[in-house]
Amino acid sequence: MDRRVFLENIGLIAAGLCLPSEGIAGGIPVPPDNFSSKLKPVGRALELEGYYVWCSSPIDGDDGKVHLFFSRWSTSKGMGGWIRGSEIAHAVADTPESPFTVVGTVLAPRPGYWDATTCHNPLICRDNDKYYLFYMGNSNGKTDTKRIGLAVSDSLYGPWKRSDQPLLNAGLEGSWDDHCTTNPAFIRHPNGKYCLYYKSWNTKEYQQGSGAIRGNRKYGVAFADSPEGPYTKYDGNPVIDFSARGNNCQFEDAFIWREKRKFRIIARDMGYYNHENGLLMQSKDGLKWTPPEIAYEGLAKYTELPPAPAHLKKYGRLERPMLLIRKNKPAYLFGAAQGGKYNTSSTFIFRIG
Question: Is 106 helix (H, G, I), strand (E, B) or coil?
C-alpha cells in the first residue's frame, strides 16, 4: 500500500472513531436518512426444494413484472457447493411481494471454459436497450480461478451471449488482488465511464492464514467506455480497505447506486462492527468513501427465527444485499439467508419505506 492510500485509510478510520453522538444508536452510527429504520420485512422467497438459493439480483422488466436473477445449487453439494456447482437462474413475479415463478436456468457451468465449474454472484443491469448480467465463474472448483464475466441480451428472457474470456482478471503476483476477481458491483459514472467494482485478496496472505483468518477481502474498481469493456483497473486500488482497522476486518458483497448526487454502497459487515449487520457508505466520486454506518441488522431484529439447524453456521444474517431501484431510490432490499422451509437458504426481501 502506498503512503497516500495508507493515509486516506487512516483518516477514514479516525473519522469513524470520532463521530458525534447525534445519529448513534447503542454506540453504532446509523445512516442520516435512517435507511435501516425504513426496512419492513416481506419475508422469504424462492424456497426451492432440492436447492440452496443465493445472490438475488432484481430488476423491473418492460413486461411489468419483477425479474430476479439468482444463484442455486443442489443440496447434495452442501452449503459450500456454490464454489463447485452453482448455476444462475431466472424467476419472475407480478410484484416484489408476490410469489416468484422460476423461468429456468440462464447460465450453467461450461466445461472447458473459465466458468467450467460454477456460475455465481449474478448482477443484472440495464444500459440503453441491452441487459448486462455480470457474474463470477471458476474453472477448478476453488477460489483462485474465480473471475468476473459477462452475459449480454436484448431481453430479460434471453438468449444470453456470454464472454468466452473473463471480463476482469486477477492482478499480478504479489499485488493485493492477485488471487481472484469476484462479487461484481456496477454503475455508470456521471462522467460517462462505466465502473466495475470487484472483490479480491492476496494469495500469499490467504495461503499463510488459518481458520477464519485467511487473507483480507478488499474492493477495487476498473473503468471502461462500454459495459462490455475492456476494463482498466484504477491505479489507487483498493478503494475500500478495512485491514488497518485490525482483527482482520474485511469488506464484501457490495451493491452500488447513486442517490442525491452521491454514490452509495450497501454491503454486509465482515467485522467492522460485527458479522450480522449490513453497512452503508457514501462517496462523492466513487473512490473515497465515508466510514460505514449501519444499513440493517441481523434478521432476528425484524422477524422471529426458528432454532438454527446444526448444519447452517451463518444462520440469522442477511448476505449479498441487493436493491430494486425505482425512481432513482431504493424500493426493496433483497438478500440471501440460510434457513427456510427446507433448512437450506433462500431469498429474503424487505420493503423500504
Answer: strand
**Quick check: 238 and 222 in contact, CB under 8 A?**
no
Which of 288, 314, 292, 281 is CA-nearest to residue 245? 292
What is the rounded CA–CA span in Å between residue 332 and residue 334? 6
How many C-beta neighbours within 10 Å does residue 262 have? Answer: 13
Determine the average pLDDT of the residues in 79-101: 98
The residue whose grid cell reads 477460489 is 143
Containing structural domain, residue 119:
3-352
Q: Do the Cβ atoms of 69 and 121 come closer than 8 Å? A: no
* Model confidence, pTM: 0.90
Q: Looking at the 3D structure of the chain, how many domains does it have? A: 1
* Total count of residues recorded for the chain: 353
The overall average pLDDT reported for the chain is 91
Cα angle at 139 between 136 and 140, to 5 degrees?
Answer: 120
Classify residue 223 as exposed, middle or buried by CB count within 10 Å of its CB (0-12, 13-18, 19+): middle
Domain with 32 in it: what CATH number? 2.115.10.20
